[in-house]
């Protein structure tokens, strides 16, 4: 039964606060209050933010209840949003206050929507340039010329407010009064799209019909990179806009979506709302409030855009649905792909999961009829999938300290002579994965984590990829004290770049690695320049796998295809398959005459994953993976949940974990098994010891309820112990 939508003055109401206490009872204020209304309530001596959650529930003496202090002038959460948060909380075992925070992550919601001062670029650089001034100008550039609140600009640039004011006086910047929270320009679904190929037209028609049903449904839209999936789901967006409903497109690496935003603009005549970590506070607030009032038709965003308060959501597209960045494993553990499906089912909306290489989960769901499946078979236009082959490293004469085989080098040279581009893929940031002492063999590790430090030569430091700690590269070995013997072992992209410079001195090379660019915008620009043909050899980590268009790229060389084939991870094979398939798909996208070539350097050319990549028989690969998972009772045929405990003291966390394991009766009662506790593969991060347990349960077992009961029955955890539950874990580190 749905709760009433309005509560008159004096009615007893439940308010979900953002505090640990969760839901508490209050009295409705004068004038009454609506369900979902954001309010400020007294909590002890403090005032905290909350949302009206329904009729009062506690048996606390009514005479002692306190009234709501004040209403926040923002649109109330819709009943659909409330139901979504409750069901997400039940599924992920996340406390509701944390979810409320995610759903209200817009600054200054409590401020009136009046005009405010905005700073923007207005003139040439100042005659007198200083480091501080340059920092301010760089921040503005990084945000693509968006407006800033004055304080925000100074803060982002790490300078004092007077620097910003100085630039205003110099005429480089201007301060204007801008209206706040203005609606986004309307997207026009009536503009013509590209004429669609036959399979595209059929798929688009099916999606349009699905939207017309005004009911929930999920579609897996499958097709190799370049088969025109985006073009198809933009037709679904158009239908959604025609109905006056809102659409959300989730992308894995929002930073890299400039190309995508341009496409939306070309199709609908205006830009969509953008939601990701790079947008300004002003934009964040505007998008949040406009979403709640249906004043933004399309939002393109990173995974957290799923928590925007859409007034009337009709469609969610999850592009590259298999991408691991949709899984958040920090504070709140959730999969944005799975939660998109949940939210759509609550809102009677449609979901489109698009991918060239779907996750085994989605593949199985499509096979069982739970999802609809649409396939785009032809690659759009003339370009073919690249020709693929392996280079057997056991049979190549490799020089010491060299990673490009003679065969691959010859192909690169041929491309260079024809004016075409080559891409060398190596999924390792930095210069070398290991720095060790040649005298004693000691490897340099992080002081806070159970991880090796990685040399980054551009920064001239060792960096921990777990916690980000850095230190200088020592001259003397920290273990044996011998000087001048520290040496780099193995390749990273920076070292590969060195080899390229030595062996192809006449070629222009560019390294694409997330840590080499000071901002998302700088990275975008580098990618645009490469696309325009500014470079001969691209050396990149997995950021190159995502859909950029490099029209002149005709050769992809995978430096170490064996990386990722091993590993205890249940999804190692799947990930490796997806990644290499995608990287290979970069070659010859708009080929013209030149069909692309992808070459995988490997020591195991007969490995089943390598063979599946080469054969192009994706379906056979997924079917085989599905069979293997079923036999092992693994997802999606069985269910997994990870329990991650951590504490600064190793014995404390180990004792508590053992105590939990002894009390696992509620888990056994539903037929689940408990594995562990065992030290996590990364046993220490940021000076906290980590212990993991894994629960495996039959597919239909009520896992969440059993886990909740189990944890509730355990003794109170020692102070400073952190316990996280990860339902459907993706990573096991
Ligand atoms: P995917 O999303 O499957 O990778 P895209 O939709 O990005 O594929 O299409 C790949 C390229 O082909 C893009 O440059 C796109 O503009 C172009 N394209 C796709 N469909 C059509 C079409 N029907 N007419 C013209 N160009 C198209
Ligand atoms: Zn570390």
TrEMBL record:
<keyword id="KW-0238">DNA-binding</keyword>
<dbReference type="Pfam" id="PF18074">
    <property type="entry name" value="PriA_C"/>
</dbReference>
<dbReference type="Pfam" id="PF18319">
    <property type="entry name" value="Zn_ribbon_PriA"/>
</dbReference>
<keyword id="KW-0235">DNA replication</keyword>
<feature type="binding site">
    <location>
        <position position="437"/>
    </location>
    <ligand>
        <name>Zn(2+) 1</name>
    </ligand>
</feature>
<dbReference type="GO" id="GO:1990077">
    <property type="term" value="C:primosome complex"/>
</dbReference>
<dbReference type="InterPro" id="IPR005259">
    <property type="entry name" value="PriA"/>
</dbReference>
<feature type="binding site">
    <location>
        <position position="480"/>
    </location>
    <ligand>
        <name>Zn(2+) 1</name>
    </ligand>
</feature>
<keyword id="KW-0067">ATP-binding</keyword>
<dbReference type="GO" id="GO:0005524">
    <property type="term" value="F:ATP binding"/>
</dbReference>
<dbReference type="InterPro" id="IPR011545">
    <property type="entry name" value="DEAD/DEAH_box_helicase_dom"/>
</dbReference>
<dbReference type="InterPro" id="IPR041222">
    <property type="entry name" value="PriA_3primeBD"/>
</dbReference>
<feature type="domain" description="Helicase ATP-binding">
    <location>
        <begin position="210"/>
        <end position="376"/>
    </location>
</feature>
<dbReference type="Pfam" id="PF00270">
    <property type="entry name" value="DEAD"/>
</dbReference>
<keyword id="KW-0413">Isomerase</keyword>
<dbReference type="GO" id="GO:0006302">
    <property type="term" value="P:double-strand break repair"/>
</dbReference>
<feature type="binding site">
    <location>
        <position position="464"/>
    </location>
    <ligand>
        <name>Zn(2+) 2</name>
    </ligand>
</feature>
<dbReference type="GO" id="GO:0043138">
    <property type="term" value="F:3'-5' DNA helicase activity"/>
</dbReference>
<dbReference type="Pfam" id="PF17764">
    <property type="entry name" value="PriA_3primeBD"/>
</dbReference>
<comment type="similarity">
    <text>Belongs to the helicase family. PriA subfamily.</text>
</comment>
<dbReference type="GO" id="GO:0006310">
    <property type="term" value="P:DNA recombination"/>
</dbReference>
<feature type="binding site">
    <location>
        <position position="477"/>
    </location>
    <ligand>
        <name>Zn(2+) 1</name>
    </ligand>
</feature>
<keyword id="KW-0639">Primosome</keyword>
<comment type="subunit">
    <text>Component of the replication restart primosome.</text>
</comment>
<dbReference type="GO" id="GO:0006270">
    <property type="term" value="P:DNA replication initiation"/>
</dbReference>
<feature type="binding site">
    <location>
        <position position="440"/>
    </location>
    <ligand>
        <name>Zn(2+) 1</name>
    </ligand>
</feature>
<dbReference type="InterPro" id="IPR001650">
    <property type="entry name" value="Helicase_C-like"/>
</dbReference>
<keyword id="KW-0347">Helicase</keyword>
<dbReference type="InterPro" id="IPR014001">
    <property type="entry name" value="Helicase_ATP-bd"/>
</dbReference>
<dbReference type="GO" id="GO:0003677">
    <property type="term" value="F:DNA binding"/>
</dbReference>
<dbReference type="GO" id="GO:0008270">
    <property type="term" value="F:zinc ion binding"/>
</dbReference>
<keyword id="KW-0378">Hydrolase</keyword>
<protein>
    <recommendedName>
        <fullName>Replication restart protein PriA</fullName>
        <ecNumber>5.6.2.4</ecNumber>
    </recommendedName>
</protein>
<dbReference type="InterPro" id="IPR042115">
    <property type="entry name" value="PriA_3primeBD_sf"/>
</dbReference>
<dbReference type="InterPro" id="IPR041236">
    <property type="entry name" value="PriA_C"/>
</dbReference>
<dbReference type="GO" id="GO:0006269">
    <property type="term" value="P:DNA replication, synthesis of primer"/>
</dbReference>
<feature type="binding site">
    <location>
        <position position="449"/>
    </location>
    <ligand>
        <name>Zn(2+) 2</name>
    </ligand>
</feature>
<feature type="binding site">
    <location>
        <position position="446"/>
    </location>
    <ligand>
        <name>Zn(2+) 2</name>
    </ligand>
</feature>
<keyword id="KW-0862">Zinc</keyword>
<dbReference type="InterPro" id="IPR027417">
    <property type="entry name" value="P-loop_NTPase"/>
</dbReference>
<feature type="binding site">
    <location>
        <position position="467"/>
    </location>
    <ligand>
        <name>Zn(2+) 2</name>
    </ligand>
</feature>
<keyword id="KW-0479">Metal-binding</keyword>
